TrEMBL record:
UniProt keyword Electron transport, yes or no: yes
Leader sequence segment: none
Protein's UniProt name: Dimethylsulfoxide reductase subunit B
The species this protein was found in: Adlercreutzia mucosicola
GO terms assigned for molecular function: 4 iron, 4 sulfur cluster binding; metal ion binding
InterPro entries (alphabetical): 4Fe4S_Fe-S-bd, 4Fe4S_Fe_S_CS, DMSO_DmsB, ET_IronSulfur_Cluster-Binding
Required co-factors: [4Fe-4S] cluster
Function: Electron transfer subunit of the terminal reductase during anaerobic growth on various sulfoxide and N-oxide compounds.
């Protein structure tokens, strides 16, 4: 099996959301459903000086563009009661069989990355399938093509590791690794470790 993976360079991502918008427009996703989400993580504070001005005190901020990570041990597949969530044996892509899915949202609850979402009008779960139709014909995922800063890349996992190194998936606001996500994340220089961060996601609700 050739396991495909995404790469994200956190130092290059500007939070422009072109990846997010390109995906949403291509797949005509319903309101409140995104296959890829760009998180804005910020922290720190401002402290007063003797002159009455305010200066930054450990202020930081960075972006994390996240889709389904097509995990090596996907919790959505392991917990799906109907077998609708499947991991392709040739590509490692995790996809949803909409003919079998009953929209019970068990996968959404199980996924540590909050990837699957219920399509309320459709009646089944929706999530990133790594543009498997494009991939099958020799193309690349839409989000990767659309990224103007080339912060996103994609290819066989071994190639991504050889090109970018192992990376570090355990950075805020992502959880600790329990499913073997196939995302090679090169953290932003100010990225904080998962579970120990002092910042918060500051996106507006409608942005996620």
């Amino acid at each position: 099996m050739t396991q495909y993976a995404f790469h994200l360079d956190g130092g290059k991502c500007t939070g422009c959301k072109t990846c997010q918008v390109a995906c949403k427009e291509t797949y005509k996703l319903p309101v409140n459903n995104l296959y890829r989400r760009v998180y804005n993580y910020q922290g720190g504070s401002w402290k007063p000086t003797e002159a009455g001005h305010y200066v930054p005190d450990g202020v930081f901020g960075y972006f994390v563009s996240l889709s389904c990570n097509h995990c090596t041990d996907p919790a959505c597949v392991a917990n799906c009661p109907t077998g609708a969530m499947q991991k392709d044996e040739e590509t490692g892509i995790v996809w949803t069989d909409h003919d079998v899915c009953i929209g019970c949202q068990t996968c959404e609850t199980a996924c540590p990355y909050n990837a699957p979402k219920l399509g309320e009008e459709e009646g089944y779960m929706l999530k990133c399938d790594m543009c498997r139709g494009e991939v099958a014909t020799g193309g690349k995922p839409i989000c990767v093509i659309g990224c103007p800063m080339r912060a996103l890349d994609w290819g066989p996992l071994d190639d991504m590791v050889a090109k970018y190194g192992e990376g570090d998936i355990e950075v805020e606001p992502l959880p600790q690794d329990t499913t073997g996500p196939n995302l090679i994340l090169t953290p932003h220089p100010k990225a904080q470790k998962s579970g120990s961060g002092t910042g918060a996601v500051v996106n507006l609700e409608e942005e996620l």
